């Protein structure tokens, strides 16, 4: 009877197609999340403080609190994607709700009014910095069939090294080849037994392969569905020196859960093609955690002007991936269905170091009437790294990061106008592309607005934040590389409740 594997744990040496520049960028970016007030003002809190999400910008911000408090926030996310692929446009939308922030601060005031250090604050905060829930659809008449993906991996690999051994199950061979020969050989194996490709000639030692599909163009339908989150839990301490200086530091503990399902269907080959239908699906799951720290200060120059500065360390992530595939075609081996999402390849543990970030801030306070705030952030993405750096494939990716990514400037502007218990807010955000060419990922722009009502002992805030960005995503790193051009709009509507003690 055929053996069926539900789970196989193997350490893979995924040569040439494991972690890449996209993984580094995915976990290096933090989207504007947090409390409703923070989002409504564009996240421009580096010189303001007084909000739990401001700890993400400047850890000195908790020393601005005059009393202890707790804040809870929930968000409604709406994503709208326009994906253009070979001239065909598809629109998808995705909605989600989440409890995205909860935190508290405990303020300890000095009993001696003449003391230089006026108060000491301990704070904690949980923020969802990235919500990965999303889906894109793309379709079009492509000149790059999926056979090219398998051919690019197979060329140069001896045919006899990817053949089933006598009595060997196909799923065992798939995993064994991946573990011992690498990702390229594993994909060549999958392409051959999926019958997308064949060796040239009858010599089992040949290293040349040809496609079984013939076409000038082929109809492709592709979907990418992602799920998960990147969250941060912050432990913070800060203090106020006289009436002129606030200083603080934070320890940040990051958690990642990410799922990605890619599904590709091909139809419309030439009438005489041996292949008429192909499906090829890939599933990736990433889990892990990370650590970072931050320090900062806010200087109160006078009753109207505050200056802020902060340093956010790199985030040191420790991650694991598992990966599974399935393929079918008109000519596929009868047992190909035993290679499915239950047959799981496990990567070795790897690490990502994101770039550090510097932020300079300025705020103008108009007494009790309102305020204006501006933040400038600088982050050099070319300094990001996959580790261990002595890994040959990681060295290739790190060289690509160094050559293709660049320093990013971020501008955030926020304002608040108060009418008795009511606060009206607005904000603007601009973030440069992390790519030196500015094309693979375009600049990000965002606008926000909000309103708050102060009940005295508590406060209710609402904020809405909209960002837009153009992104080019390829289906694969090789073979099918014409990018899908995506216009991505993300809208967050957040409601926060703050209880003062």
Structure description:
With 501 residues, the chain is mostly beta strands. The protein has a single domain (14-500), classed as Beta Barrel (Porin), CATH 2.40.160.60. It has six helices and 22 strands. The protein has helices at 21-28, 36-40, 147-154, 170-180, 183-193, 392-404; strands spanning 11-12, 69-85, 88-109, 117-131, 134-142, 197-199, 209-211, 218-241, 245-267, 278-300, 305-312, 316-329, 345-347, 350-353, 357-365, 370-380, 385-387, 407-419, 422-431, 444-454, 458-473, 484-500. The strands form two sheets. Strands 2-3-4-8-9-10-11-15-16-18-19-20-21-22 form a 14-stranded antiparallel beta barrel. A two-stranded antiparallel ribbon has the order 6-7. It starts with 10 loop residues before the first strand and ends with a strand. The model is unreliable at 1-17 (pLDDT under 50).
In a few lines, what is going on in this structure?
With 501 residues, the protein is mainly β.
> Helical region count?
6
Structural class: mainly beta
Task: Round the Cα radius of gyration to an integer and report it.
Answer: 26 Å
Intertermini distance: 68 Å
Strand content: over 45%
Uncertain segments are 1-17
Can you name the CATH architecture? Beta Barrel
The geometry reads as elongated
Under CATH, the homologous superfamily reads Outer membrane protein transport protein (OMPP1/FadL/TodX)
Q: What count of structural domains?
A: 1
Largest sheet: 14 strands, antiparallel, barrel
CATH classification class? Mainly Beta
| CATH topology (fold) name | Porin
Look at the structure and give the mean pLDDT: 92
């Amino acid at each position: 009877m055929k053996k069926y594997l539900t789970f196989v744990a193997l350490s893979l040496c995924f040569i040439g197609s494991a972690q890449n520049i996209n993984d580094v960028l995915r976990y290096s970016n933090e989207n504007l999340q947090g409390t409703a007030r923070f989002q409504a003002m564009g996240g421009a809190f580096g010189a303001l403080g007084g909000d739990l999400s401001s700890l993400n910008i400047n850890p000195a911000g908790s020393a601005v609190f005059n009393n202890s408090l707790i804040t809870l926030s929930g968000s409604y996310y709406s994503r709208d994607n326009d994906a253009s692929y070979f001239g065909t446009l598809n629109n998808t939308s995705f909605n989600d709700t989440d409890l995205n922030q909860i935190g508290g601060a405990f303020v300890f005031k000095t009993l001696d009014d003449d003391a230089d250090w006026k108060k000491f604050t301990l704070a904690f905060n949980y923020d969802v910095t990235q919500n990965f829930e999303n889906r894109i659809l793309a379709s079009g008449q492509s000149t790059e069939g999926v056979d090219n993906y398998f051919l690019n991996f197979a060329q140069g690999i001896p045919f006899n090294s990817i053949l089933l051994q006598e009595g060997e199950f196909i799923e065992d061979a798939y995993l064994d080849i991946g573990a011992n020969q690498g990702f390229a050989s594993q994909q060549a194996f999958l392409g051959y037994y999926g019958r997308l490709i064949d060796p040239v000639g009858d010599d089992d030692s040949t290293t040349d392969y040809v496609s079984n599909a013939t076409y000038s163009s082929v109809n492709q339908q592709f979907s990418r569905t992602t799920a998960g989150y990147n969250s941060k839990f912050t432990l913070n301490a800060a203090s106020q020196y006289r009436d002129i200086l606030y200083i603080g530091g934070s320890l940040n503990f990051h958690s990642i859960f990410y799922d990605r399902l890619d599904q590709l269907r091909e139809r419309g080959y030439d009438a005489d093609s041996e292949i008429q239908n192909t499906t090829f699906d890939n599933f990736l799951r990433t889990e892990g955690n990370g650590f970072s720290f931050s320090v900062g200060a806010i200087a109160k120059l006078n009753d109207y002007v505050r200056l802020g500065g902060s340093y956010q360390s790199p985030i040191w992530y420790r991650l694991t991936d598992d990966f599974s595939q399935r393929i079918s075609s008109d000519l596929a081996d009868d047992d190909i269905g035993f290679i499915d999402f239950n047959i799981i390849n496990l990567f070795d543990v790897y690490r990502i170091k994101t770039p550090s970030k510097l932020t300079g801030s300025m705020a103008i306070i108009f007494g009790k009437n309102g305020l204006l705030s501006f933040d400038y952030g600088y982050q050099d993405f070319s300094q990001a790294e996959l580790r261990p750096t002595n890994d040959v494939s990681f060295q290739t990716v790190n060289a690509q990061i160094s050559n293709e990514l660049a320093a990013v400037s971020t501008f955030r502007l926020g304002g608040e106008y108060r009418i008795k218990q009511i606060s009206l807010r607005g904000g603007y955000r601009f973030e440069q592309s992390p790519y030196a060419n500015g094309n693979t990922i375009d600049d990000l722009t965002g606008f926000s607005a909000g309103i708050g009502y102060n009940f005295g002992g508590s406060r209710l805030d609402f904020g809405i934040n909209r960002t837009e960005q153009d992104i080019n995503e390829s289906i694969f790193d090789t073979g099918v590389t014409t990018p899908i051009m995506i216009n991505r709009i993300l809208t967050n509507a957040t409601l926060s409740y703050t209880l003062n003690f």
